[in-house]
Design brief:
The protein folds into 2 domains: 29-156, Immunoglobulin-like, CATH 2.60.40; 160-347, Aminopeptidase, CATH 3.40.630.40. It has 350 residues and is of the alpha/beta class. 34% of the residues lie in helices and 30% in strands. The longest helix is centred in the N-terminal third of the chain and has 25 residues, at 2-26. The strands form 4 sheets. The chain has a 6-stranded mixed sheet, sandwiched between helices. The chain has a 5-stranded antiparallel sheet with strand order 1-7-8-5-4, with helices on one face. The chain has a 5-stranded mixed sheet with strand order 2-6-3-10-9, with no helix packed on it. InterPro entries: MurNAc-LAA_cat, N-acetylmuramoyl_amidase_3. Its EC number is 3.5.1.28. GO terms for molecular function: N-acetylmuramoyl-L-alanine amidase activity.
Length: 350
């Protein structure tokens, strides 16, 4: 009897193994859906996941009349004032939030148009609001309008609106503090310089679009940072950091260095951009010129598909330079140098 049971257990185990293998082979998006659901649920704020799909073509009713538009039907009684649209450029995800919510949006309402720009989509009922999350294939600006109970969204390439597109990255953030000296963290210095740079661009009236990987104490992944540049097809990708001696000890070493992609051999290369950045930051801050460094060992440099420069503004392991880096006046000078470098790069044809 035990032998018969053992044989049946062996047979059933074999069948289950085959089923699992076939499922993994034929339904590879199951894992992707689970990962997407977990990530988007966390980003939305822990709402209850009602429905999700990794295949937008199964949800979006294709309509040639709408071209590159999406027509999203809204629940009855929902007005323009009840809808909030958030475009998270860093993750290329659009969140469409509407009051009330429904239990199963995809079953009850239609989305029509083109799914060409959508990599994946999900729906959540988060407390008392419904949330449609659309993960896009690249960075888009949105144009939306409301008409007869529906939301219409156009996806627009930033280069169709702006003359130049830049991505600026403040290195580190949140729990990833970078170097910390005398209670001063690199993440804070990097962000302070970028915030000063943002002020300059906010006052700039030219048709320049600047995307920032962070403007507060957050920590996007390295891949999110570089993919923002890649998926925006940015003309320039500038990452702001600060240096420290390899020993971690205070030394007399000081000055500015800039890292570049050695594999970028284009005429308007990463190296040429780095040279422009180094010259201008040194000019405005009066810091010591410590030259360029090959940077393909750095992930965001190695994987960037656009001209990239990683600026190490100064050394936190030099007492005098740390004091300077921690001062608003010096942060403004560093930001001015980066701003001037970007303008010079544009003049060079970037």
């Amino acid at each position: 009897m035990d032998e018969i049971v053992l044989k049946w257990v062996t047979v059933l185990s074999g069948i289950l193994t085959v089923i699992v293998c076939v499922s993994v082979f034929f339904f590879p998006d199951i894992h992707e859906r689970a990962v997407l659901a977990a990530e988007q649920q966390k980003e939305v704020g822990g709402g209850n996941l009602i429905a999700t799909t990794a295949n937008p073509k199964a949800v979006v009713e294709q309509s040639k009349d709408l071209n590159a538009q999406l027509k999203i039907a809204l629940p009855e009684g929902i007005s323009k004032a009840d809808v909030e649209i958030e475009n998270d450029y860093v993750t290329q995800t659009i969140y469409i939030k509407f009051a009330g919510g429904v239990d199963d949006y995809f079953e009850q309402y239609a989305i029509k148009g083109s799914s060409d720009h959508i990599a994946s989509m999900a729906y959540y009922k988060d407390k008392e609001e419904g949330v449609i999350a659309l993960q896009l294939d690249q960075v888009y600006e949105l144009k939306n309008r409301f008409k007869k109970g529906s939301l219409y969204i156009d996806f627009i390439d930033p280069h169709d609106i702006y003359d130049k597109v830049i991505v600026v990255d403040a290195g580190h953030g949140s729990h990833a503090a970078g170097a910390v000296k005398l209670g001063i963290s690199e993440k804070s210095l990097n962000l302070a310089i970028v915030q000063q740079l943002k002020k300059l661009f906010d006052e700039d009236k030219r048709r320049i679009r600047v995307y920032y990987t962070r403007t507060s104490d957050t920590n996007p992944t390295l891949d999110q940072r570089v993919q923002l540049a890649n998926k925006a097809n940015a003309d320039l990708f500038i990452s702001v950091h600060n240096n420290s001696d390899a020993t971690g000890n205070f030394t007399k070493v000081k000055g500015t260095q800039v890292m570049y992609s050695e594999s970028d051999d284009a005429k308007l290369s990463s190296k040429k951009l780095a040279e422009i950045c180094l010259k201008n930051v040194v000019d405005t801050t009066g810091s010591e010129n410590r030259g360029l460094l090959k940077g393909d060992s750095i992930y965001i440099i190695r994987t960037s598909k656009v001209p990239v420069a990683l600026i190490e503004v100064g050394f936190m392991t030099n007492y005098k330079e740390l004091d300077l880096l921690n001062s608003t006046s010096y942060q403004k000078k560093a930001a001015e140098g980066i701003y001037n470098a970007i303008n010079e790069a544009f003049q060079e044809g970037y």
